[in-house]
Amino acid sequence: MKHSDSDQSTTGATSATTAAPAPQTPPRTARLVAVLCLVQLAFLVVFGNHFHFERGLVGGNEALYSFLLDDRLAVFDLPEDYYSAQFQNAAYDDFVDYAIGIAGAETREPFRFRVVYIWTVKALTLALSPCDSLLSACGLDQIALAAKIVNWAAILGTFFVLLAAAPAQARQAPHVLALAAAGAFNFGTVITAPFVMADITAALIFAAAGLCFLRRRFWALVAVVCIGILVKEIAVILGLLIAAAWLRRDGPPLWAVLAGGALPLAVFVGIRVAMGSDPLSLNYGWDVTEGEFEIRYFFMHAEHFFQPYLIRMLSGVGVAGVLFLITLRYRARIAPELWAFLAVWGALMVANILLASMVVRVSAPLAPLLATALLHFGVQLSAAPARRGQTSPP
C-alpha cells in the first residue's frame, strides 16, 4: 500500500510537472511582444533626434532664444554673452516657466501649481549647487542638471513599478522586461528627459496609480492621485480609477469612493485658492469659474481631420497602446478593469485636444499606465487565443 501510494504520488507529481512545464523560451505571442517593444526602442534610438514630434525640442531656434533672453529669462542675472543650447531646444518657454519657479521667482499658471516637481528639483539643485544664487547663470545651469537627474530617476522608477505589476515568477521573462522598458522608455519620456519638464514624473505617477488600482490598494491609489495633481494637474484624470474601484464586486463602499474622489478635487482646488488663482484654472485662458474658455487648441488639432494630432499622440503611447487594444479585445470579459484604463486613455486624449499642444510628452504617461495593465494580465496576454470568439482560462 505504501509502495502504491508512493507510485501514485510520484505519478501525480510527474503529471503535474508535465501539465505545466517551465518553458525554456517564451511562447510565440510573448516573443512577438518582445520583438515589438525592441523595435520601438530601436526606432527611438535611431530616429528620436530627427523626428520633429515637438517643434522647439529638436534643433536650434535663435528667434525663440532671443525672445526668452529679453523676456522670460529677464528674472535671471545673466551676462550679455550668456548662451545655452538648453533654451534653444526647450519646448518654447515651458522649460523657462519651470526654471523660474524652481529659482524662487513668480512663474505663471499652470506651472506654479506643479509644486511637487518644482520643490523636488529645487531641493536637488540646492543640494548640488555651488552657486550663490539660483537666479544666476550658474543657478540656471544647475537647475537644468538637477532636472535631468530627477527625470531619469523617474524613468527608472517607472521601469521598476512596471516590473512590480508583473507576476513575480515572470519578471525575468524577455517579453516582460521588454514591455516594461517600452513603457518607461517611450518617445515622450526620452525626448523630454534633458529638459525641465514635469511630464516624466507624471508618467511615474500614472504607473503607480495603475499598480495601486490593479492591486486593490484603494487609499494608496487616492494618495498617489493627490500627489500626482501637485506634479501635473493632468493626474486628476486618474480619478476615473478611483470611481472604477467601486464597480468591482469586492470594491470599497460607496462612502469611501466618494471621500476618496473628493480628496483629489480638494487638492486641485486648494492649491489654486492658496495661490490666489481661479479655483478651476486649467490652462492658459481656462478660468472656468469666470466663464473663460479657450478652444484654440481644438481648432489647431482638427486640421487635416486630426491626422497630425493622432499620429503624434499615438506615437507617445507606442507599442503599449497596440498591445492594450489587442488584450482588451480578447480579455475584457475576464478582466473588466481594462475598461477603466481605456477610460483614462480616452479622457486624456480629450483633455489634450482642448488644453494642450500636440506634443508627444503630453501622452507619455499613457504608455506606462497601459503597460501596468498588460504586465498584470501578462499570463492572459501570452495565452491570447488566435481566433475570434475563442476563450481560454485566465
Describe this structure in words.
By secondary structure, the chain is an all-alpha fold. The chain has one domain. It has helices at 2-19, 28-47, 62-70, 94-102, 115-128, 137-165, 174-184, 187-192, 199-214, 218-231, 239-246, 254-274, 296-301, 307-317, 319-331, 337-355, 360-363, 366-376, 378-382. The longest helix has 29 residues, at 137-165. The relative contact order is 0.11.
Descriptive keywords:
single chain; 394 residues; mainly alpha; 0% strand; globular; disordered C terminus
Concise overview:
The chain is mainly α and 394 residues long. Helix content is 62%, strand content 0%. The longest helix is centred in the middle third of the chain and has 29 residues, at 137-165.
List the helices and strands and how they pair.
Blueprint lengths: L1 H18 L8 H20 L14 H9 L23 H9 L12 H14 L8 H29 L8 H11 L2 H6 L6 H16 L3 H14 L7 H8 L7 H21 L21 H6 L5 H11 L1 H13 L5 H19 L4 H4 L2 H11 L1 H5 L12
